[in-house]
Every structure is written in C-alpha cells, then in structure tokens.
C-alpha cells in the first residue's frame, strides 16, 4: 500500500490495559428517547463489571447526542450513569465518537476515561489493535469526509453551544433525518477492496488488527501477513458484541437470551419499489409471496413487502417488492414471515431462516410500530 490520506486520523493515543478481564467492543445501539432498548443496553453495561477490563463504545451508541449538558436527555444520562458505575468498579471506559455524536469530550474524566475520534490499542490477545467507528472506511466517499469535517469544526461547535437547547436539537434532528439519504451510492454495497485498503492502511502504521462498527454487518476478514479486520454488527438488532481476551482469539458473542437475528443486506439495487438484494445469510425456506419486513438498526421503523423471487444458485440473492419508505442500504435486515415448522434461534443467538421479529405472526407482518416518544 502506498501512503496518503488514511481512512481515519493517523495519530491516535495508546490504550493501556488494566488488570484482569477482557477488552469488549460494542457499536451502533442508536438509542433514542423512550427507547425500549435502553434498559436492555444498560443491563448489558452493568454486567461488564464482572468480566471486562476495558470497554470501548465504538460509536453511534445514541441516535443523536450533542454532548453538551443542555442537550443531554434522560436516555443519555442513563447510559452515562451505567458507565460511571463501570468506572467505579475498575473498568476502563472509552467512548469513540460515531457520526451521530458530537461535543462528547466534556464527559471525559466523568462517565468516560477517554473520548476520542479513533484510537490505537496496545497489544491485546497477541495483536496490536486499531479501533474506529468506521464511517470513513470508504475513501471514495468524499462527502462523508467533508460532512465529518464540517460538523466537528470549531464554528459548528460554537454554534451548538450558543443556540438554545430547543433550537439546537431541532437543527440536529434535521441533520439526522438527512443522514440516511446522504451519499446513497456509497451505501448500497461493500466492495472487498475497501476492507483490503483499510487493512493495508492500518498495517502500514504498525497495527495487525482492526475493529470498526458503522456498517451493521458482522464480519471477520483475514488478509495476508496475519492481518484481520473485525466489523461489528449493530447491537440494537443483534445484541452481539466483540470480546477480545488477553489470551486466545477474538470472538463475537450474543448477550442475554437467544434472539432472532435476521439476514443483513450486503448489496442492494433498488428502483420503482423493487429491490435486488444480496444478504449475508440465506433466505431459508421463504418462498415467493412470503411477507417480509426490512429494518435499519437505527430504530423501530420498518418497510414491509413481499418476496418476489430467489436465486436457485445462491440462496442469499433475492428480489423483493416494498412499500414506499426510506431507501435501503447495506446493514438493513430482512425478516421473512415464519415458515410452518420453523425452529427457534440457534445457540449463538442468530436467527434460523424465516424467523420474524417479535410481535409478528405466521400470517404475515404486523403494522409498522410507532417511533418511541421523541423520535422523528
């Protein structure tokens, strides 16, 4: 790999390990006001006091957070309290800002040991790790880099601090609503070369492993020279996280009781209400005409539709028809109405083919759930 601008900042600080326990990474919870996932996530955090030396929140923990106390709502404060309790128990807590969190540095030394845009980790489990949210992994997406520079600039920070809370939140929510529609052509597939470039970039800087979130698709990618990249799934849809022991191999784990995890989109071509999809897992025994729902991992909103066809040679490829809604992108999850006789979740928490979300029936999908209070 040649030099040049890397996907993330090039001079992160080292992460020093504490005594005992593992390094735990979690990403993309997208908690909003009145969110039913809030007590679940806080319970997950509390349990880490027993088995974790370092916890890294790898970005987009919140649907939106403008960091400053006047913008910090009860759902933010609940997570902050859980992080304070972890620190009191001796767990080191690091917050890596995602593309929905800003001005968080002020909580350093309070709820978090450190707040960073990206960071390096000292050797852990036999590897030297590079950790980042991952929103800049695609170096072809100049718009994402420009957006990040602008929203994290000093003038924007000064504006956010000066605005009354209601006005600042209204402006931020408008930006948040636009995120899903921004630079769509960079969000419809995951070319392998992006990951290879990223792995080469961090290898040039002395790292032999990396971990990111943002994409919402669970992956482990191995490259020449023993390099490895771990892509975390969104915790909101999966309740899965990455555990890195001091000795042994990193492992994706499910938290809590087994729960269905629907296949994620890794490639999409959508036009006129019809979408050609490639999923990260087979569509199971779903037949043409099967009802389905697509959710984004950013909240409870869903698009509903019908399976039109599936590729006999590759069960991960399907064609669907959908009602109007937000454009599909990589990381969205497709749930098919349960086929007769389908079994429960597998031991690792992943869904068998044809497992619908909670509240659905074999006859098809339910009406879309309303957003939690305070969500747009």
What does this structure look like?
The chain has 376 residues and is α/β, with parallel strands linked by helices. It folds into 2 domains: 22-254, Metallo-dependent phosphatases (Purple Acid Phosphatase, chain A, domain 2); 258-376, no CATH class. The protein contains 7 helices and 17 strands. The chain has helices spanning 37-47, 74-88, 142-151, 154-162, 165-179, 192-204, 235-238, and strands at 22-26, 52-57, 92-96, 114-116, 118-124, 127-132, 209-216, 219-222, 228-233, 240-244, 251-254, 265-271, 274-279, 291-295, 302-310, 317-322, 333-336. The strands form 3 sheets. The protein has a 6-stranded mixed beta sheet with strand order 4-3-2-1-10-11. A hairpin with a 5-residue loop joins β8 (219-222) and β9 (228-233). Residues 1-18 and 340-376 have low confidence and may be disordered.
Structural topology:
Blueprint: E1 22-26, H1 37-47, E2 52-57, H2 74-88, E3 92-96, E4 114-116, E5 118-124, E6 127-132, H3 142-151, H4 154-162, H5 165-179, H6 192-204, E7 209-216, E8 219-222, E9 228-233, H7 235-238, E10 240-244, E11 251-254, E12 265-271, E13 274-279, E14 291-295, E15 302-310, E16 317-322, E17 333-336
Question: Which properties best describe this structure?
Answer:
376 residues, alpha/beta, Purple Acid Phosphatase, chain A, domain 2, disordered N terminus, disordered C terminus
């Amino acid at each position: 790999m040649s030099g040049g601008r890397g996907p993330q900042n090039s001079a992160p600080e080292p992460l020093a390990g504490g005594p005992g326990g593992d390094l735990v990474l979690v990403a993309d919870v997208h908690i909003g006001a009145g969110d039913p996932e809030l007590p679940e996530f806080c319970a997950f955090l509390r349990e880490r006091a027993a088995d974790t030396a370092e916890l890294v929140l790898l970005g987009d923990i919140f649907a939106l957070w403008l960091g400053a106390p006047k913008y910090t709502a009860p759902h933010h404060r609940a997570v902050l309290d859980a992080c304070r309790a972890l620190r009191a128990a001796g767990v080191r807590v690091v917050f890596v800002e995602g593309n929905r969190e800003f001005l968080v540095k002020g909580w350093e030394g309070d709820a978090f040991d450190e707040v960073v845009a990206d960071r390096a980790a000292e050797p852990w489990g036999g590897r030297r790790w590079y950790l980042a949210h991952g929103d800049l992994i695609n170096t072809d997406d100049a718009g994402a880099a420009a957006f990040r520079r602008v929203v994290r600039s000093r003038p924007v920070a000064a504006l956010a601090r000066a605005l009354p809370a209601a006005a600042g939140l209204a402006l931020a929510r408008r930006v948040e609503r636009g995120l899903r529609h921004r630079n769509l052509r960079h969000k419809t597939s995951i070319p392998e070369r992006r990951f290879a470039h990223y792995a080469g970039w961090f290898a040039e800087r002395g790292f032999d492993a990396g971990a990111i979130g943002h994409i919402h698709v669970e992956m482990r990618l191995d490259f020449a020279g023993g390099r490895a990249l771990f892509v975390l799934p969104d915790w909101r849809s999966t309740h899965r996280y990455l555990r890195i022991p001091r000795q042994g191999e990193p492992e994706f784990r499910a938290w809590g009781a087994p729960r269905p995890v629907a296949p994620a989109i890794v490639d999409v071509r959508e036009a006129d209400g019809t979408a050609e999809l490639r999923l990260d897992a087979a569509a199971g025994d779903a037949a043409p005409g099967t009802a389905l729902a697509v959710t984004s991992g950013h909240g409870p909103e869903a698009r509903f539709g019908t399976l039109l066809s599936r590729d006999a040679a590759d069960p991960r490829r399907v064609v669907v028809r959908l009602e109007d809604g937000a454009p599909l992108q990589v990381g969205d999850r497709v749930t098919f109405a349960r086929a007769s006789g389908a079994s429960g979740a597998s031991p690792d928490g992943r869904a068998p083919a044809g497992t619908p979300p909670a509240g659905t029936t074999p006859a098809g999908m339910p009406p879309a759930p309303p957003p939690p209070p305070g969500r747009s």
